[in-house]
Design the sequence.
């Protein structure tokens, strides 16, 4: 009798179906499905009911490093309807998982079009966002979207010491900046300006009747240009770049009262989780056509991931926020 029960349990386990399992079919996910002999369609997102054997196969193979980027989610709350074949790289609304319809937002905004987050400031506590991003330029009413950047790290705050004898070449003329701040890439263990080396970058702080400016010799040719100078991001929304390819943004705050310069680490490749969160929450006109949940809202960013030399500042936590 015990043997019969065991056999029945074994047969039953092979046909038990899991709850909704949603697959986002990048190359890694598609390869994983094939290896576990799971049939799937050509849609980018698909819900598949798995047998216990298939689920076990997925779990065992995903432990291998080659399948770390395979995306699937067990027990998904929202069902996904199969869609026609699309190019994963195209800017198509089918690709972006903004579940507006499921939450009734289109009908709500149609009835209350001004209830889109306008006059609200949202806070993103994550790994930072970029002012380059198309969705962080303006709100639905044309106001500035990205208002301020903050960080718990003190590594990127430098003391301003008055410059007495150093001159720079500025737009072809000799100029003595008010302050010079040396940024040692070796200390920060990175090639910030993208020249293939770890060098010392000299930031020039210039104060004149037009304001306070941080200027950066992007190509290290000892020639500072107007286009490489910026005012406060907080007050004016100005920013430049760490490197001449102008991919990674550089924001700065000059505090003459406390004699400090604070710059940001910048958003690098693979450092985009905060941007994803902010886009879904309050992005507007992403890629020229998409909105987040509250496109009328403005954004303040608090970056928990910036490098620090102090242990108490390095933890990726809001415990000290």
Sequence:
């Amino acid at each position: 009798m015990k043997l019969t029960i065991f056999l029945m349990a074994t047969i039953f386990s092979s046909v038990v179906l899991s709850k909704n399992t949603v697959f986002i079919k990048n190359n890694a996910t598609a390869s994983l499905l094939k290896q576990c002999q799971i049939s799937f369609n050509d849609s980018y997102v698909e819900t598949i009911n798995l047998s216990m054997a298939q689920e076990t196969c997925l779990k065992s193979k995903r432990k291998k490093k080659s399948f770390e980027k395979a995306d699937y989610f067990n027990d998904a709350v929202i069902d996904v309807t199969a869609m026609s074949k699309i190019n994963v790289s195209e800017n198509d609304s089918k690709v972006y998982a903004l579940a507006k319809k499921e939450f009734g937002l289109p009908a709500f905004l149609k009835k209350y079009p001004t209830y889109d987050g306008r006059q609200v400031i949202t806070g993103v506590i994550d790994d930072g966002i970029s002012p380059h991003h198309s969705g962080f330029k303006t709100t639905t009413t044309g106001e500035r979207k990205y208002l301020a950047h903050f960080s718990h790290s003190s590594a990127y705050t430098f003391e301003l010491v008055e410059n007495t004898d150093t001159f720079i070449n500025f737009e072809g003329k000799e100029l003595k900046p008010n302050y010079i701040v040396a940024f040692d890439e070796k200390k920060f263990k990175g090639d910030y300006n993208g020249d293939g080396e770890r060098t010392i970058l000299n930031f020039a702080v210039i104060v004149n009747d037009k304001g306070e400016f941080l200027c950066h010799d992007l190509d290290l040719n000892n020639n500072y240009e107007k286009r490489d100078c910026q005012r406060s991001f907080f007050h004016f929304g100005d920013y430049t770049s760490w490197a001449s390819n102008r991919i990674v943004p550089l924001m700065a705050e000059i505090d003459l009262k406390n004699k400090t310069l604070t710059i940001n680490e910048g958003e690098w490749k693979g450092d985009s989780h905060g941007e994803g969160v902010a886009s879904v929450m309050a992005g507007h006109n992403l890629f020229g056509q998409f909105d987040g949940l509250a496109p009328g809202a403005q954004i303040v960013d608090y970056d928990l991931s910036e490098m620090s030399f102090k242990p108490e500042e390095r933890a990726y936590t809001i415990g000290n926020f």
Observations:
- The radius of gyration is 26 Å.
- Residues 1-18, 76-96 have pLDDT under 50 and may be disordered.
